[in-house]
Amino acid sequence: MAKKQGRKPGQFGYLPPQHKFFLNPYHDARFTRCPKCDRPTKLRKKPLLILFKPPQPVSLNKTCRYCPNCDLLIAHKDDLDRLLQTICLQYFPDLVGNDYLVVGTMERKAWKEGLQSGSLEELLNTVHDFKQHLEFEPARYMWVKDD
After folding, report:
1. What is the C-alpha separation between 28 and 2, in angstroms, rounded?
2. Domain total for the chain?
3. Centroid of chain to Cα 87
4. Structural contact between residues 60 and 47, judged by C-beta atoms closer than 8 angstroms
5. In the chain, which residues have pLDDT < 70?
6. What is the rounded distance in angstroms from the CA atom of residue 17 to the CA atom of residue 130?
7. HSE of 1 in the Cβ direction (CA atoms, 13 Å)?
8. Burial tier of 124 (Cβ tally within 10 Å: 0-12, 13-18, 19+)
9. Tens-place pLDDT, residues 67-107
10. Is the CB of residue 15 less than 8 Å from the CB of residue 126?
11. Residue 35 lies in a domain
12. CA 72, 50, 75: angle at the middle one, nearest 5?
C-alpha cells in the first residue's frame, strides 16, 4: 500500500493523486487512440471509487482505456452507468438514477477487502484522487464522395 500523506484542500483521499481522468459520455466513440497524443490506448483494470449523491461510496473494479504516454485513464460512461445501475438495484435501490462522481482509484488490496468494513478515515487512506478531470470531443470526419 502506498504511503499516507496529508490531504490538500479539495483532495478526497490521502494517497498521492494518480492519472488524468476522462469519463467518456459518447456512446459511439470508444477512444481506442488517445485523444491527446493519438497513440493506441491499452486496457487497464482499475478499482474506481465512485461517490453518489446523497453521499454513498461505491467501489468498482472497471476495465478502462489507458494511455501510458499521457497517464490518461478513460472510462466509458454508458458502460459505467449500466454496471452502477445493476449494483444499485441490488444494494442501494434509493440511489438508482442519482448523480455520481468518479473520485479516483483505490489501492487494489483495499478494494478486495471491500468498503463494508472500516470507517471513512480508513477509506480515505486507500484512495488516490485523479490529478485532473478532462473533457474531449471525438473527432468527426465528413466523408465526401469524389465524382
Report:
1. 37
2. 1
3. 16
4. yes
5. 1-6, 115-118, 140-147
6. 5
7. 18
8. middle
9. 999 999 999 999 999 999 999 999 999 999 999 999 999 99
10. yes
11. yes
12. 35
**Does residue 142 form part of some domain?**
no
- Which among 68, 78, 61 is positioned nearest to 34, based on CA atoms? 68
- Residue-number span of the structural domain to which 111 is assigned: 15-61+75-133
42 backbone dihedrals φ, ψ, rounded to 5°: -110, 165
- For the chain, the distance separating the N- and C-terminal CA atoms, rounded to the nearest angstrom, is 62
CA–CA separation, 93 and 74 (whole Å): 27
Cell of 144: 465526401
Residue 92 to residue 71: CA distance in whole angstroms: 33
- Assess if residue 6 is contained within a domain: no
- Residue 139 domain flag: no
* 57 alpha-carbon distance from chain centroid: 13
